[in-house]
Amino acid sequence: MAVQINPSILSADFARLADEARAVKGADWLHVDVMDNHFVPNLTLGVPVVESLSRATDTPLDCHLMIEDPDRWAPQYVEAGAGSVTFHAEAAAAPVRLAREIRAKGARASMALRPATPIEPYEDLLPELDMLLIMTVEPGFGGQAFLDIMLPKIRRTRELIDRHGLQLWLQVDGGVSERTIERCAEAGADVFVAGSAVYGSQDPAAAVRSLRAQAERATATAARPCAH
To answer: Which of 162, 176, 185, 205 is 20 to 30 A from 134 via CA?
Structure first.
């Protein structure tokens, strides 16, 4: 699958979100971290900001809900203009029903796993999803160091996706930078959330291009199992 780079606005200037969205020209999606200060110990933004941002940019919004009760709230983010909505497996009461509702409303359905949550119990749910997000830091704050111990989990997830012949995107989020993106791509990820590595650079659009080139090179040389 094609490499996708999703800059995270968690690292952007919140006073200039519309300008910051335009600054990452060439990005595939704009990653929007929604935190409620309950599921994670941080508070960011909600539906009204997503709705405004969707009107301010042509780049589709990839909303990552780090919130309690996503079964109730996730559909509202689709209605606000999100093209992809990610809920956490640890927070969803009925993940299959929620994924189907998100899809029925016209968005891509994605599920996230915290670092300590294994992928194997969710193998049977994978066909219900459009994307799976492997957190490579503990969710809640930007700028954290990448957790190398997540690389085997990324590989196992890619193997499951290929084994079932699924067209499922595999996203990584947390500590993704020029120093780590190639390892993630070699392990099987194809969608990369980058916050500080993009918005902390002098030229965010150039950072997007550079990260994409690195991931594409690593993907081209990685030996992956074929789907059967």
So the answer is: 205
